[in-house]
TrEMBL record, chains A, B, C, D:
InterPro entries: MTH1187/YkoF-like, Thiamine_BP, UPF0045_domain. It comes from the Eukaryota. One of its GO terms (cellular component) is cytosol. Residues 9-103 form the Thiamine-binding protein domain. It comes from Suillus subaureus. This is Thiamine-binding protein domain-containing protein. Belongs to the UPF0045 family. Pfam families: Thiamine_BP.
Length: 115, 115, 115, 115
C-alpha cells in the first residue's frame, strides 16, 4: 500500500459570515492558490476537480481555506469528495478526465446503435 | 417564498455491492435518465451539475437511483450539493454556468492587470 | 422498483451571506421544521441524520431552506448524503441507527476477543 | 494564519467493488484506525465526526482508505465535510459537540417559553 495514495477529488468551498451572498471573489482566490499548487485542477459549476498525491490535494485545499480566511471570511466550510483505488494505476493528472471519457464512450455507443 | 425553490445542484452517485470497481456503466445509465428529465445537466470528473425546480432535481436523482438498482446495484449512495437563493432570480438553466463565468471574469482581470 | 424509494440520509445546511459566523440559530430553525415533518431525524456535530420516503426527505430539506431564507439568509447551500437499497427492507425509522449498531457489534467482538 | 488550521470535520467512506452490499466490516476497520489516531471522533448513522489539526484529520482519513483497501476493497470513495474558523479558538476536541450544544440550548429556550 503506498504511504501517500493517489487521490482523485473534487471540492466545493463556502465562506461563512461574510455578509455578502456572492462567493465568486473567494472562489477566484482559491483558483489562484490551486494554480500555485502545481496540481491538475478544473473548476465546474459546483466545485473544482483536483487530483494528485493525497497529502498534496489535502494541503492545497487547506491553503484555500487559509487564503479565504485571509480575505476576510471568519469561517469556511468545504465539502470534499475523494477517491482512491489500488486495482490499477491512475495516470497522473488524468484521473477525473479519464472517468468522463469512459462514460462518454458508453453513451457514444448508444448513439451509434440508434443511428 | 416559492413553494418549490429553484435549485442549483451537483451530485455524485456510487453503486455499492456490484462486485466491480468500474462505475462507468452505472453513471452512463444516470446520464440517460437525466436526458429524459428535461433538466439542464452536465457531467464532470467527479459528479454531474444539474439544476431546476427543487422537486424536479430531487426526482431526477431518485430516478437515477431506481435505474442503477434496476441495472443490478443492490445499494446506491449519492452525495448531493444543492443551493438556493432568494436575493435574485437565477436564470433558468444558467445557474451553474453563471457561477463559473463570474469567477473566470475575476481571474481574467488578474491576467489583464498582470500584462 | 418502488416509485418512492426509502431513503436513509444525512444533511448539513449552511446559510450564506448572513454577516454572522454563527449558524446555530439557523440550524435550530431547521430542527423545528424537521420536528413538524414527522420523519425520524437526529442532529450530530456536522449535520443531521434523516430518513423516510425519498420525496418526504427531499421536501423536508427543501422546507429547511425556505425557513432559513425566511429567517434572513439570502443564500443557502446544503450537502446531502442519501442512500437507498433494494436487497432488503429498511425498518422504517431505523435505517441510520441500524447501521451504527452493526458496526458497534463488530467492534464489541474485538473487545471480547481481546479480553 | 496558523500553518495547520484546526479542522472540525465529518466523513462518510464507501468501499466500491466489494461484491457485498454490507459495508459494516469496512466501517469497523476505519473505527480501529481512528482509535489509533488519537483524534476525537464519533460515529453516527451516516458518517463519523472527527476533529484536530487539518493535517492529522486528513492523514487519519487517508489511513482509513489504506486500511479498507488492505481489507479487499479495490476502490474507496469518501465524502468529507470540513470546516475551519479564525474568529475564535475552537476548544480542542470539542468543536463538533460545541455546535450541537449551541443548537440544543436554543431549542431548550423554545420549550421553556412554551411551557
Amino acid at each position: 500500500m503506498p504511504s501517500d495514495l493517489y487521490a482523485v477529488a473534487d471540492f466545493c468551498l463556502i465562506p461563512i459570515g461574510t455578509g455578502e451572498s456572492s462567493v465568486a471573489e473567494y472562489i477566484a482566490e482559491c483558483q489562484r492558490v490551486l494554480e500555485k499548487s502545481g496540481l491538475t485542477f478544473k473548476m465546474h459549476g459546483y466545485g473544482t476537480n483536483i487530483e494528485g498525491p493525497w497529502s498534496e490535494v489535502s494541503q492545497a485545499i487547506h491553503d484555500c481555506h487559509a487564503a479565504v480566511h485571509a480575505k476576510g471570511a471568519p469561517r469556511v466550510a468545504t465539502d470534499i469528495r475523494i477517491g482512491t483505488r489500488v486495482d490499477r494505476d491512475t495516470p497522473v493528472g488524468d484521473g477525473n478526465d479519464h472517468k468522463v471519457k469512459r462514460v462518454e464512450e458508453i453513451l457514444a455507443r448508444d448513439r451509434a446503435a440508434a443511428s
